[in-house]
Amino acid sequence: MNDTMQKQLGATLWKIADQLRGAMNADDFRDYMLSFLFLRYLSDNYEVA
């Protein structure tokens, strides 16, 4: 992936994040998303004993 494509991808992802966030404060959105990422990490790394 070249530099131009990375910049386009970053801009697109930022635009999507803004739409999802809506009127929510950016700090609140960050906390909300970090919680989901943590749960995803736990889910992906869960081992049945």
TrEMBL record:
The keyword Signal is annotated on this UniProt entry: no
SUPFAM superfamilies referenced in this protein's UniProt entry, alphabetically: S-adenosyl-L-methionine-dependent methyltransferases (SSF53335)
Keyword line: Restriction system
Membrane-crossing residue ranges in chain numbering: none
Boundaries of every N6 adenine-specific DNA methyltransferase N-terminal domain copy: 9-47
Biological-process GO terms, alphabetical: DNA restriction-modification system
InterPro entries: D12N6_MeTrfase_N, SAM-dependent_MTases_sf, T1MK-like_N_sf
Family of this protein: Belongs to the N(4)/N(6)-methyltransferase family.
Protein name per its UniProtKB record: N6 adenine-specific DNA methyltransferase N-terminal domain-containing protein
